[in-house]
Fold each of these.
Amino acid sequence: MTLKSRLNGRLLLAWALSVLLVVALAGLTLSVVALSKQRAADSARDGAMKAARQLALDFTTYDYQTWDADSKRVLDDSTGQFKQEFQSGIDAVKTDVVTNKATSKGDVKEAGVVSNDKDSAQVLVIVNAVVTNTASAQGVERRYRIKLDLVREKNQWLTADLQVVG
């Protein structure tokens, strides 16, 4: 084998190894980007789930003696039309809650994200609550299925809509 053919062989081998290295680096880069996107999606999903569970709990837990603080927790985690509607009904509900010495203790049983992206989510939550009042001092257990539409504002998940669906 001549010197020239050995050099051509080494050059060809170096070129082939360079191409393989570039392909491997491109594959690694794509994998890292995909993993990063998946982690961000998982984080958004987890954040929405946690916020929905907390709002459902706050919405179903109140005491006639602490109504102002209880309703404020719901307002603090709300936005948009839901916040406006809840705010506009607070005084009427407070009158009923205080008059009837009502309490409710919610317990989130199940929750599931129906859909989500980085800035919005829809979550279904099942809550059991024991409700007491002057007519039922022993308490009555109620089961709520709540659909919450959440939006992320300033890196915080807030409830934009809440519907009791069953």
Amino acid sequence: MQLVLVRHALPTRIQPGTVNVAGAADPALTELGHRQAATLVTALAGEPVEGVYSSTMTRAVQTLAPLAAALGLEPVRRADLAEYDVDDPHYVPVHEMPRLDPATWERLRAGLLPAHVDVPAFRARVVAAIEAVAEAHQGVSTAVVVAHAGVINIYLAHLLGVERELPFPLDYTGITRVLCGRDGRRTVRSVNEIGHVAPLLAEVAAVRG
């Protein structure tokens, strides 16, 4: 079967002190992010998608919504697909980090998760979650998982035996494909396909200025 792993679309920034009821930042998509999410409908048209999954975080749920509606499939939300920042009280989109959070930005550029993350626990949670999706869809089928850059990266690092926690730059709504054999073999077919969303990524760069 094929896993299609999608990074969420562009979310809003949540300043420190502006939190949801649970006390953690959970940003929604921007208007541009909603337009990015809509490109997944045509990008994955004609593929034999049998299941659609997302993390429980709003930016992932909203990114999946147009595709799920177009396919007529009920999304499955999994808390174990949440990003490493799920409990953080604020959220700065990656493209704004060089200006607003340079220390975290330098760690990400070096392929490292933020210092407060329990990397082994995060890796174990993510790998188990994505493997559970693969196990639920045997045969010639496709499952789409909308998650986060850290989630997708640490799964790829696990598959490829890469020591860096964040080996790849992943764009908003970028698509990564992994082929999963019945015998347990996992083959990374592509990383960060962005042809479907390239013009809208250019708009992010323009906003960044």
Amino acid sequence: MNAIAQPAEGTTSGDGHSYRMPLPRLRLTPDVSHGPLDGAWWPRCDALELELPALVGSLDPGVGTVTRVTVGTAAWPDAPQEVMAPGHVIEVVLTDSATEAHAITVDCGTVGRWELLVIPPDEPAGVATRLLTAAADPGNPLSAPRLLALAESGLDGQDAWESEGGA
């Protein structure tokens, strides 16, 4: 998938009491990634139990069922140990690793794995769009913490990105 999933409107059933999460704001590298990231995800809130099922549902089913995700405790301090997704349970592993501070690792058993930049939900749309694009670039040499640090410093990151090997 190499497109930002556009937000979908919530829907209600005939009784008016159900809600479907909007499609995730996600961009993945086309084909194979050659960098530290395979794309980026911009959740709408910091409730992993609400956001994760939509993210998992948008991934290509050909790569298998998502069995586990690894997230940083700094970004997801209240993350549950398990999240229900349609038809299965996803194990949530919390880590204090600096490389996972602004990332999520999505494991599909032995079939596939994605390392995604997690853009903070309150990030301005313009900055988030640039981060989605940069993280999904197959030639991106920057890690999730480095990309976010460039965005937070107020730089657009283009000069630094190019000086560190970006196209």
